[in-house]
Amino acid sequence: MTSPITSQPILRPEEPQAQPLNKLTTAVLILLHLGAVAALFCFSWLNLGVAVFLYWMTIELGISLGYHRLHTHRSYRIPVALEYFFAICGALTLEGGPIFWVATHRLHHQRSDQEGDPHSPRDGAWWAHVGWILLGESKHNNTRMMSKYAPDLAKKSFYVWLNNYHWVPMVVLSVILIALGGLPLFFWGVCLRIVVGLHSTWLVNSATHMWGKRRFSTRDDSRNNWWVALLTFGEGWHNNHHAHPTSARHGLAWYEFDPSWLLIRTMRKLRIAKAVQIARLPEQEVEEKAVA
């Protein structure tokens, strides 16, 4: 089956629930969840602090600012060294390398909630949340295939290397944490942190296409969900995002808390971020014209 937009093989099979189990991915996820449970039996404030910091670094810098708003949608520009750092932070989530993540998300936008969407709740909430990862052939390391959907990243050898070896940063971090704090720090800084991060970002695929309010009449089922936004540093304002996918700002109203946008705005003021694309509500545009 091919996508009429890309004329390339797409990720979602015609009968997603009937696909074979990806044994390696399933085994890794089971071990991570077991480690997350073990973390609860070796609590310390240090372990919690490290986990919270790494969660912020990987989910906000890595996924929200990096993989999503920068690498996928090019909502703003930053120096190459910082762009690469955000990509490494993204790899530390164990959601795959940058080429895989970007390609999957671009396919999601092209075919959102239609045939060809890798993770639509129309195929079931469980499928959208995690089933699409557990079932079928994994494409995490198929850099050549996924590069067809992310040719801009594939031109840079760093992204090709990181996509092929996206697990290397996690191995390095694990060794460091074990050396500094033993297994308890590893359970908190790796296992528990990754599990919470995975489910939080998976909720963007599932919950924000099922529950919440719709400000814009997009062709998909995207919704704005405040509690997913809190977990993901602003990614839960998903209907806003689908209406304006290249906008660096997802929370468009004053009450839509979007920490990632606040950080991008700060980088813009410091002249670190440039070419920042910003969507506004119609009433905001009227107010700006009135002031001008």
In short:
The protein is built from 13 helices and no strands.
Structure characterization notes:
With 292 residues, this protein is mostly helical. The chain has a domain at 16-215. The chain contains 13 helices and no strands. The chain has helices spanning 23-39, 45-72, 80-91, 98-110, 125-134, 143-146, 151-154, 157-164, 168-206, 226-231, 238-243, 259-269, 282-291. The relative contact order is 0.14. The model is unreliable at 1-11 (pLDDT under 50).
Task: Give the helix/strand layout.
Layout lengths: L22 H17 L5 H28 L7 H12 L6 H13 L14 H10 L8 H4 L4 H4 L2 H8 L3 H39 L19 H6 L6 H6 L15 H11 L12 H10 L1
Helix pairs in contact: 1-9, 2-3, 2-4, 2-9, 2-12, 3-8, 5-9
| Residues in helix, % | 55-70%
**Estimated radius of gyration:** 19 Å
Tally the beta strands.
Answer: 0
> What structural category do the secondary elements indicate?
mainly alpha
Shape assignment: globular
Oligomeric category: single chain
